[in-house]
Amino acid sequence: MEKQILHVDVNNAFLSWTAIDMLKKGSKIDIREIPAIIGGDETKRSGIVLAKSMKAKECGVKTAETIYQAKIKCPGLKIFASDFKIYREYSDKLYKLLLEYTDKIERFSIDECFLDMTKYLMKDTLLSKAQQISKRVKEELGFTVNIGVAHNKLLAKMASDFTKPDRIHTLFPEEIETKMWPLPVSELFMLGKKTVPKLYNMQIKTIGDLAKTDVKILSKKFGKHGVQMWEYANGIDKSEVQYKEEKPKGVGNSITLPQNITEIEKLEEILLALTEQVTYRLRKYNLLANTVNVQLRTKDFEDTSHQGKLIEATSSTKEIYEKAKQLLHQMYHRPMAIRLIGVRVDNLVEKESKQLTLFNNESNEKQEKLDKVIDELKNKYGYNKITRAGKMDVGDLLKLKDIKK
DNA sequence: TCTGGGGTCCTAGGACCC
DNA sequence: TCTGGGGTCCTAGGACCC
User: Fold this and answer.
1) Catalytic residue positions of A?
2) Interatomic separation, CA of residue A157 and C1' of nucleotide C4, rounded (Å)
3) pLDDT of A330-389, one tens digit each?
4) Topology of the domain covering A181-233
5) Nucleotides on strand B with an atom closer than 7 A to protein CB?
6) Would you say the C-beta of A252 is within 7 Å of strand B?
7) CA dist list (Å): A80 to A22, A30, A278, A301
8) Could you tell me where the DSSP H helices lie in A54-162?
9) Is the CB atom of residue A256 positioned under 7 angstroms from any atom of strand B?
10) I need a labelling partner for A95 at 20 to 30 A (CA). Which of A110, A222, A363, A383 fits?
11) Architecture of domain A15-84
12) Is the CB of A258 under 7 A from strand B?
């Protein structure tokens, strides 16, 4: 049966949400109306553009470029800090509103949702629902969305990306040729900056060119990915809206350091703080990890990572940190100037399904109790207030003067 | 003061087994 | 002085997304 899918995409999400939050707090300016961006902190070496206003876009400012470059392009540019707590609140408000139309919603990211609206079989009904959603979001929540309407997720997502802001676009099978095929191939979902030049070399410049290319040639050159890009170019996507709350497949935490660090002792301390955050989230999900992965980025932007299996699945800060420290020592050799360090856990399993081991020793139980007490304190008094005796969280660590150089 | 942080999925190659 | 081949598991790295 033919599905009816909507893709709802918030226009300039971070910038819009910051704008309406500022207005609510009495700001006289609407940062959506001036050349403005939401950006990281250049003094912490995380100075990239997260979102831009239309006026900033007109100057040529691009998402993910450096603030430094953006300022050159747009001299009067105003920069505002991101606030993910606020973004989460607006995202939740949007989700709640959408729930009134269907419970089959997939939260694809903080500012994008797929809705399975197959229960509205009539095209006119479907379109009027989309119009209703668009109007209500604007009036009740104060920001605008783009909505893509199609028979599968891929086409709905492509459609919502057409012209912005505050628009509804359809992409039904008979419209693929006129609406999607003339677009540059780089516009196709899942085609990034590594693949596009290769396609250009093959004289494949538009999505239409890709759709008409022999899938065997693509399969040979790009493997599975080649088949998928051909299907996408032809509007084929069989995936379902994943509306059931899914547990994460991995949990990670990484930080770009304000200054490069060479001393392994300092890296260890930061690693512990990162690990504490990871295991805290792991325990909140009631999950256990089977593998630990440590990532390093050098001052020259060379990335390396090492991973290792744990003896048994765990969410214990101590056990995961021990493993992480071991991995760090494996990969670290002097003199290395480290720009970024990260830890992540993968191969997660439900806590309940953990196999009982013969030697469920007392020390493990003790450790588990300690983690639990710390988690409860963190829940009660706020994450950053509570840390292990003698240790600080990443934020505090990075404030230390002696970390410099 | 140039280059985030959170993810997912795929692939190539090595180790090991039969 | 020859050197299989299939299968599984594991790891490092890469590509892509928002």
Assistant:
1) 112
2) 49
3) 999 888 999 999 999 999 999 986 655 555 566 777 888 888 888 888 877 777 666 664
4) DNA polymerase; domain 1 (1.10.150)
5) 1-12
6) yes
7) 11, 12, 28, 26
8) 54-58, 67-73, 84-98, 123-136, 153-160
9) yes
10) A383
11) 3-Layer(aba) Sandwich (3.40)
12) no
